[in-house]
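Shapes recur. Our protein:

. . .
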Amino acid sequence: QVQLVESGGGLVQAGGSLRLSCAVPGSIVSINTFGWYRQAPGKQRELVATITSVGRTNYADSVKGRFAISRDIAKNTVYLQMNSLKPEDTAVYYCNAATNRNYWGQGTQVTVSS
């Protein structure tokens, strides 16, 4: 099964930064939207940010002004730059690529200590 591959998670203090990367296999084509989602313990998976094929971005209110999604088409990679991290950002972060179906990665843990 084709999967995206996330990396860049880790442990950081509140106020710090992390950059997540998502490698997209070249076999996945005609991608409409890339997205980053997260799931904290005991909570449902929630949308963090999306970027469309024409570069239009969208963010959850909780991360606006702190997170930035971007993509490098040549490298088939999507990024999530996370600044001013808060303990409530602690979660497993998942990358998503939407075509006529959804592709997911295995997730990467982000832990923000207070």
About this structure: The chain is about 0% helix and 50% strand. The mean pLDDT is 95. Residues 61 and 86 are 14 Å apart (CA to CA).
